[in-house]
Structure formats: C-alpha cells, structure tokens
C-alpha cells in the first residue's frame, strides 16, 4: 500500500478525521505539560501538532517511514525532531519519553507487536503507551461507505476488515504481547459533515492507502459503477460520517 503521497493529499483523504481524533487521543492519554512525547507513524503531523500545543516543540519527537510525510511534518511543526524510520526500529534512546502514541498506525506496521514493544522501550518505566485504530472489523471506519460499495461492484477485492488491530480484541492483544501492563481500551468517535458528495469523493482519487489503491485498480467502467453506487448510498449531501476508533493504552 502506498503512502508515498503529498501531505496535502493525505489531509484531504484522512486528515479531516485524524485531526479531531488526535486531539481526543492526547486527552485520553492524559498528556500533561512538562512531559516528553514521541509520535510514532506521525504522517503529515496531525498528532504531532496537538502534542506541540500541549508540550512545546522541544518536548516532542516524531517518526514516519514516508519521506513526503516526514517533510510535511517538519514544515508544519518547526522545532520538532522528525525522523524517517519504521516503528519496529525507532531511532530514539531508551526511556527518552514519558508517553508514546501511534494514531491510526498499528494496523500498517509490518510487525505490530514489535512496533509497540519499541514504543515501550523508548518510554520511561511507568509511562503511557497508547494507540488508536479504526474499527475496521466492525465497519465503522471513515472508509466504510467505500468498502460497502466495493463489495457490490468488485466483491473479489479485499477490504481492511482483517487488518491487525482493527478490533478491540486485536488491538488489546497487541499491547499485551508487547509486554505493556495496566492495559485499558475505549472507543473514540469522530463525526465529520461533508457538504457535498464531491467533497467526500474527490480525496479518494489520489491513491492514498488501501482505499485509494483499490479504486485505482478498477477499470474505468467499474470505477464509474462504483461512483454511481456511492452516490446512491450517500446522496448529494450534506451528510455526516461518524467513524469510531478503538483506543488502547498501557504502561511501559
């Protein structure tokens, strides 16, 4: 799957959901002034920006494997140490953070248990490690309308329902296997109002993530049919899309 896209393309596609979710996650993790935080899989910087508001740029570090996302996060968050790298081998010292967070990232990690274990390594003993993943198993992600329509138009195409971390049990299990203690889980909901169908649909055309790749793989006739089914299901707008993420947190 591809995240080798400009930060602006990701913002139009997922940022409209991930930005309010990031703010809720920071509150849920009880991030407080004076702490040091690491944003794992920072993307263009939705969570990074909220952490900077709470802690200051000199108390936040971030990492992402996508070069365009790293560049965007650096530009948007001056003073933050943003590095390119994967979650499974974080470029930060042991016990260097009070809190480590991954917002909508765990299901894209090559090895989620290793990634969360690395998050725990860079977090001081007793510090918080937390993550969110959309409820992919329960079809409550922002992309759910797209996958519902894809099942009608191209049922052979796999969706995201089996991604690791996409259910409460799966996400909690990853934290448990990574060795965290005092694990808790909750649901975090985000509602976005889309003024028109076109405003909702346009960001899906840029090949971002599994949804964008699925659309790009369709032939022109199937893509036209997909749009017709989506218009039928969603209407012209305005309409609301409520997405629900599972959040899990534990202690390093």
From TrEMBL:
GO terms for biological process: methylation. InterPro entries: Diverse_substrate_MTase (IPR051052), Methyltransf_11 (IPR013216), SAM-dependent_MTases_sf (IPR029063). Keywords: Methyltransferase, Transferase. Residues 38-129 form the Methyltransferase type domain. CDD domains: AdoMet_MTases (cd02440). Coiled coil: none annotated. GO terms for molecular function: methyltransferase activity. Belongs to the methyltransferase superfamily. This is Methyltransferase domain-containing protein.
